[in-house]
Design a protein that fits this description.
alpha/beta, 17 helices, about 425 residues, 2 domains, Rossmann fold, 12 strands, 5-stranded parallel beta sheet, single chain, 5-stranded mixed beta sheet
């Protein structure tokens, strides 16, 4: 069970200019939170509202379909996932946390050197390539797919088709047409789910299954978030109040542990694309949106903590803390290092959690607002609940800000300029305008 600890935000700890009167403010905003939750649930009935992610954890049949497909891939030793942004970050974060040893390689950029290095060390006979793009027209994904498909064809001839799976829109787009024409294995991205909210669709589930992640436990955890929605409601409200009324415009997600590091990357996209908006739902120019910042404990205690504690007091900190890290690693006694005697016989887990507590106390002493999300452990159920809770939190924040959390108009113009610069037909006028 995910536990939310808001107590360090109390103004009695960090002062009224930085903290909150939690009980009173939560009570005062209860009606607004009810309205926000109901608005989301009502709009979820409309496929165009892009709220299908709310129902996605219930779709165990898609997970079973994926598992049946994966069971037949006994020859696969390496998986290459071609995708960018929401088509990669969720699966990448969960695999890093749950199956870091899995031979799943993400090509989520178009820097040629890493792609060439990956091609040079993989055996096409035992490699599966998974191309993921909801639109089927993502330039980076298509570029990588052209290269990997030719690599497979040159090595395997007509058998290349057995080494490709496509994840895209169920009806339209270049990749869907290509999958049909070539008879490729293909899985659907639900039309009412946007990329950054798609981790519990085949976008995330197919790579996760190929990595050996337990999909059913993951979805069970995600379903639990809906039954404990108070965690998302309260965390959304405190972030809104801290940004709007306390000037905390930067939201730092700081998980403790290397395995959770990429969860902060996933959160950054979720927060930035969903909440950074020029216009509200009524068309008024608002330019809202807190800036997400990722940090990892204990590593960033030695790089960012100096700024966090003594720099501008414009940040709110969200700690993600696992109670159980699994098998521990004890520190042996060493007579030659008596300066380290306070560590003898203790485990790395104890040290990591002490580092987290030390950071939290240091921030409180400096009157910096922070709260914690406690995970019971680093497992599928816990991470499923965490990610679904953060999606609900983001959606509720969108309602509080009055913006559409499910579009990304600011991203589209850069894509169109890219198409024009690369010579795609229909985009020539953009260069003339420039």
């Amino acid at each position: 069970m995910l536990e939310l600890d808001l107590s360090p935000l109390e103004s009695s700890h960090i002062g009224p200019e930085n903290g909150l009167e939690l009980e009173a403010e939560l009570r005062a905003w209860q009606g607004e939170l009810d309205r926000a939750e109901q608005a989301l649930k009502t709009r979820a009935r409309n496929p165009e509202a892009m709220l299908g992610w709310i129902r996605q954890p219930e779709d165990t049949e898609t997970a079973r379909e994926i598992l049946r497909y994966v069971e037949g891939l006994t020859w696969v030793k390496d998986v290459v996932v071609l995708g960018i942004g929401g088509s990669a970050l969720g699966a990448k974060a969960l695999i890093s946390a749950l199956r870091p040893e899995a031979p799943v390689h993400f090509v989520d950029n178009v820097d040629p050197a890493p792609v060439k290095a990956l091609l040079s060390r993989l055996d096409p006979r035992t490699t599966l390539v998974v191309a993921i793009s909801k639109s089927g027209a993502t330039a980076e994904t298509l570029a990588a797919y052209l290269i990997f498909r030719r690599w497979l064809f040159d090595a395997l001839g007509e058998d290349w088709r057995q080494h490709v799976a496509i994840v895209t829109d169920p009806e339209k787009g270049p990749l869907r047409a290509h999958a049909r024409a070539e008879g490729l294995a293909a899985f659907d991205v639900p039309p009412d789910v946007g990329g950054r909210f798609s981790v519990f669709t085949p976008v995330g589930l197919l790579p996760l299954a190929l990595a050996g992640v337990d999909l059913m436990q993951l979805l069970m955890g995600a379903r639990a978030a809906a039954h404990r929605l108070d965690n998302a409601r309260k965390s959304a409200l405190v972030l809104f109040l801290l940004e709007r009324y306390r000037g905390k415009r930067i939201h730092v997600l700081m998980p403790y542990g290397t395995r959770l590091a990429l969860v902060a990357d996933w959160f950054s996209q979720l927060h930035a694309e969903s909440l950074g908006k020029a216009y509200d739902r009524k068309g008024a120019r608002v330019h809202v949106g807190p800036t997400p910042l990722k940090a990892v404990g204990a590593t960033d205690q030695h790089s960012l903590l100096q700024l966090f504690r003594e720099g501008p007091n414009d940040k709110a900190f969200i700690f993600v803390l696992p109670r159980d890290l699994g098998e521990d690693l004890p520190m042996p006694e060493d007579p030659g290092l008596t300066a380290a005697d306070y560590l003898f016989g203790k485990g790395l887990r104890e040290l990591l959690l002490a580092e987290a507590e030390g950071t939290r106390r240091a921030l409180t002493e400096a009157r910096r607002p922070q709260y914690a999300l406690w995970l019971p452990g680093i497992n599928e159920a816990a991470l499923g609940e965490l990610l679904q809770t953060l999606m609900w939190q983001t959606a509720l924040l969108g309602e509080l800000y009055g913006v559409n959390a499910f579009d990304q108009p600011g991203v589209e113009l850069a894509k169109r300029y890219t198409f024009a610069l690369m010579g795609r037909k229909g985009f020539e006028d953009l260069l003339e305008e420039g």
